[in-house]
Amino acid sequence: MKFGIYPGGRAGTVCSAPADPARIGQLVDELAGGGPFVVREYVHFLGDHPAPEAVAAIGAGAELDHLTMPDAWYAADGRELDLVVSYLPPDADVAGWLAFLDKVIDRYGHLTRYLQVTLEPNFPIPMIDGSSPGVLDALTRGLPHARARLHRAGLHDVRVGFSVAEPPEWLGGDDAFWAHLAGVPERDFAAHVDYAGLALYPDAFAPVAPPGTPGDVASLTAHAVRHLRERCLPRAHIAGRVPIHIVENGSPSGTGRTERDQEESLSAMIETIMAHEEPANVVLYELFGLRDADSASSEAVGHLGLVTDDYRRKSAFALYRDVVRRAPARR
To answer: Which domain of life is it from (predicted)?
Structure first.
């Protein structure tokens, strides 16, 4: 299994300060320990003429100019770029979306190892792709389009996939999403999918049971992985040989929780995911994220980092560093 992280300090609209590339570089190097390491980044399609306030709200103004770090950094020292292209226009605009995918590939394709087309299209909440008009067409047309564009550019080693949120049962489920994919012929979508991503935040936004009891973070994590592999992906004609990437996993240290609580939750989740490496074909784990978006925020998304927003290490930093370094398969 490979490991990685999102290195920026933004979670949706929450961000307390600009990123510090020098400190990020030092922390990522310490986590990677000289071995391979995946770095996750995001760019956003907000329509052909996005409102300036929408661009500013998620910090999307210069995404096609640069990511968090300089270009060369993503291709050095065993790092691999996992680039997410998010679909968030106010109105359905698949033609504009396909043109934006072309721009992203032209700009960053040479640096990219994994290209994720849409962000959680099964999850219909504000500022997530599942709430955007036309998102199902953006996924099912966009992913094959991106693969074809990459091949025309000679970028045959880039793996193309999509991600979903953990089973959103508290929102009434995502059956309509998977039913839609079930109706798309395999040759038109599933045959082009190199991986399926899963985002997991079991204890970030709702209370969970105590450790060792049904409904704790470990059991919720196991349920999410098995649910995706055994129930959802087969409906979408995606075979077991297509690997799962845990593309986001996090636990907050704020909102009434301690840094020790965060460390214990992450330990339980990572241990559970690693136990599913072979039976569920999980090949990549990425933590969200390196730095708090806002350590003073009252929102859980402000506290998901391994370090605070001023780069002070939490105890979970050492935990993840040790997990990464103990994993022999990544080398």
So the answer is: Bacteria
Q: What is the pLDDT of residue 330?
A: 47
CA proximity to 161, closest of 233, 88, 75 = 233
Omega before 215 cis (within 30°)?
Answer: no
Kindly report the number of other CB atoms within 10 A of residue 145's CB atom: 21
pLDDT(329) > 80? no
CATH of domain 2-330: 3.20.20.80
- DSSP letter at 301? G
Residues 6 or more apart whose Cβ sits within 8 Å of residue 300: 204, 205, 252, 254, 255
Residue closest to 302 by CA, chosen among 245, 270, 243, 262: 262
The mean-pLDDT minimum among 95-104, 165-174, 216-225 falls in: 165-174
Structure tokens at 194: 């190199």
Q: How far is CA 67 from CA 14, 38, 41, 46, 179, in A?
A: 17, 14, 7, 17, 35
pTM exceeding 0.90: yes
Residues 6+ apart with CB under 8 A from 33: 321, 324, 325
Q: Identify which of 71, 68, 64 has the alpha carbon closest to the alpha carbon of residue 45.
A: 64
Q: What is the mean pLDDT of residues 27-35?
A: 96
- Dist. CA 191–CA 238, nearest whole Å: 8
Mean pLDDT across 224-232: 97
List all residues 6 or more positions away from 191 whose beta carbon is below 8 Å from its beta carbon. Answer: none
Helix (H, G, I), strand (E, B) or coil at 231: helix
